[in-house]
Task: structure prediction
Amino acid sequence: MKPTPPAIHNAFDILEAFQDGQREFTAQEFHKKLNISLSTQYRVLHALEDRGYLRRDTQTGRYRLGFKFLQVGNLALEQEEIVETSRGILQDMCDETKETIQLGILEGVEVLYIKTIESPLPLRYVLQPGFRTPSYCVAAGKAILAYESEDKISRVIRAGLRRFTKKTICTTTALKRELADVRRGGYAVNWGEMRKSGRGVYAPVFDYSGRVAAAVGLSVPPERFTHKRLPSLAEVVRRCAEEISSRLGAVPLKTSATTGENEAASLAEAPIRSKQRGGSNRKPEKSGRKNDTSG
Result:
């Protein structure tokens, strides 16, 4: 493992200096407290200020913590709240389906998995917390992106829609069509878009503000992930996602079409409609791989 660059340590030393209760520092006070060379210190201070982690008063030259900490801190608290709120629900979900359960959030253009409960069955998939995947080619990512802003979806597209398998979504048109299908049905499916043997079904989780905060779902070996079983799995996933959302203060998600037809009541038909439109709910292919990612 490569040693951490000194500038990184210096940056953390500067930020942690505020832990002692002093709310403002001049550059000289930082130097006296931390014994960092002035030339190095000024470069680090400038970088932290540029990224919003420090604010400098132009009149006094004193530094205070920046508002970026509020954003990062709120995100950390939100993740912790989602994990704690969903813990019992995820375990019940695992007990009911006997499949691996995962909770993921969107971080940048990737899905970050923050909670996993492993299937009790010998043949299972496991994504440990901290694992990341591209968002556009896994069910967790599509479940979140379907309710994200156009700006975030555009960022994902600009980052590149790399092909992993023959089923990977690689065009803007195909991705937007897929996300529209997710919004109509209320859940997203992966038939092997990142890995040939990857299978999963996820639904969005919303917070009190109505913003999509996460996706919850399950990963299933292809031997147990069939069109016949999908409606029942999707029903469990949607029900659990709605329960977590409710505990976070969200109002119930409406998935009915503009004509008033309640698609939420016709989960069993959703895979068939998507299949007829050429969507992602295609017949699963055979695969002998057992331990690939599948969210």
In short: The CA atoms of residues 208 and 249 lie 4 Å apart. The beta strands are 54-56, 63-65, 100-107, 110-117, 132-134, 188-190, 200-206, 212-219.
